[in-house]
Amino acid sequence: MGLKALCLGLLCVLFVSHFYTPMPDNIEESWKIMALDAIAKTCTFTAMCFENMRIMRYEEFISMIFRLDYTQPLSDEYITVTDTTFVDIPVRLYLPKRKSETRRRAVIYFHGGGFCFGSSKQRAFDFLNRWTANTLDAVVVGVDYRLAPRHHFPAQFEDGLAAVKFFLLEKILTKYGVDPTRICLSGDSSGGNLATAVTQQVQNDAEIKHKIKMQVLLYPGLQITDSYLPSHRENEHGIVLTRDVAIKLVSLYFTKDEALPWAMRRNQHMPLESRHLFKFVNWSILLPEKYRKDYVYTEPILGGLSYSLPGLTDSRALPLLANDSQLQNLPLTYILTCQHDLLRDDGLMYVTRLRNVGVQVVHEHIEDGIHGALSFMTSPFYLRLGLRIRDTYISWLDKNL
Ligand SMILES: *[C@@H]1O[C@H](CO)[C@@H](O)[C@H](O)[C@H]1NC(C)=O
Ligand SMILES: *[C@@H]1O[C@H](CO)[C@@H](O)[C@H](O)[C@H]1NC(C)=O
User: Fold this and answer.
1) What is the dihedral of CA 371, 376, 381, 387, to 10 degrees?
2) What is the pLDDT of residues 239-281, one digit of tens each?
3) Residue 341 annotated in active site
4) DSSP 122
5) Is 144 in the active site?
């Protein structure tokens, strides 16, 4: 009892001390975002303490919190919702009940969560996917790819690709009444990474008959080659997602070895023979001037990691590393970036790279946006920013898909 009270007391102190992260002044509902940020940082801190005390690993603690938020597949008046599998990959499927004269549009959605956490079953993503199915009268699939650190790259990517390839089969499209010319891949954060990588793969694979009509990338994470971009510097202790947490999670995508995050924090993790890749992430060329500001470009240092991790140079893991010929065949792309987001510059650089090779890109920049806003649009936060992002993206999708 005494110990519990002590722990609770400590958590309260922590919570309050995290409440004072300075907020940018243009932010809507700043008190909610302050509370959110304090909760996120308190959870991170507690998880790190538990890890240091060898009670449980950081990601085990955070996963427990995420799992509290999972929902059952509940059908309603308009949509039949089922948990099923594509090949052997768990998916949550949303099928409109109304009879349709024509074949429907479809959206395949990859949830965020740093490759380590989350699910299509999470309240916010279940809400988003149901909303999409309803508003667009579309078939929607939420993909539950395997998670790190139990599974490392390429498991997440391979699950995403396998689920999409299965859905694109003639007999499956017919089964669900989907129009093969009106399919979109969407994702947020690490899910945006998977949507990007899978789209690159599908569009460049001559053996896949039906292609993707468009991709939607919501504050995606697309690279880690350079861990010292202007948005990393501005949001080192950023709202919800800090540089340390981002580095920890993306490291776990590749390995549990602590040497990787250590080297990443110092921007020394890329292998010796990888300098030719820097041009694909050279922010001093690829970022618009408005975001470059007066920051000075310094090249990442090579070879700080004593062994080689092939994933670090693989565009299936870090799709900003794809070369121009791999980007040329990409479909219409919608990219949403948030100003107060560590991952902002990944999205901005992909906009430039795609436009440079003639891919049609629609870019939405949310000036008061924070990372992960969609995840907070449902109970208990009902964050208006999240709803605004949902509405912006869905109305664009409705007009274009
Ligand atoms: C990055 O761009 C700058 C120009 O802004 C250039 O001087 C530098 O050589 C480039 N570095 C790499 C590795 O591409
Ligand atoms: C681009 O990358 C692909 C896949 O790695 C490779 O096959 C191709 O030769 C590369 N093209 C150029 C122009 O470097």
Assistant:
1) 100
2) 999 999 999 999 999 999 999 999 999 999 999 999 999 999 9
3) yes
4) B
5) no
Residue 377: C-alpha distances to residues 8, 128, 241, 387 (Å):
27, 9, 17, 6
Q: Which of 63, 189, 231, 251 is catalytic?
A: 189
Give ligand 1 pocket residues (Cβ under 6 A): 278-279, 282, 284-285, 297, 299
Secondary structure percentages of the chain, helix, strand, coil, to 5: 45, 15, 40
Walk me through the domains of the chain, giving residue ranges and CATH numbers: 74-223+312-400 (3.40.50.1820)
Inter-residue contact 202 to 165 (CB < 8 Å): yes
Crossing angle for the helix pair 30-52 and 2-18, to the nearest 10 degrees: 130
189 is known as an active-site residue = yes
Q: For ligand 2, atom 1, which residue shows the shortest CA distance?
A: 323
Catalytic residue among 341, 345, 346, 368: 341
Asked whether 325 lines ligand 2 (CB < 6 A), one says yes
User: H helices within 53-181, ranges in order?
Assistant: 58-67, 123-136, 155-167, 170-175
The one catalytic residue among 159, 232, 371, 375: 371
CA of 106 to the centre of ligand 1 (A): 41
Read off the tokens for 276.
Answer: 């030719």
Query: Tokens 């110092």 identify what position?
Result: 266
pLDDT digits (tens, 9 = 90+) for 14-70: 666 655 667 888 899 999 999 999 999 999 999 999 999 999 999 999 999 999 999
Give the Å distance between the CA of 322 and the centre of ligand 2: 8
Spell out the alpha helix ranges (H) of 148-279.
155-167, 170-175, 190-203, 230-234, 243-254, 259-265
Which atom of ligand 2 sits closest to the CA of residue 323? 1
Q: Which of 325, 306, 198, 204 is nearest to 258 (CA)?
A: 306
Asked if residue 374 lies in contact with residue 128, where contact means CB atoms within 8 angstroms, the answer is: yes
| Bridge partners, 111 (sequence order) | none
Nearest-angstrom CA–CA distance, 214 and 219: 16
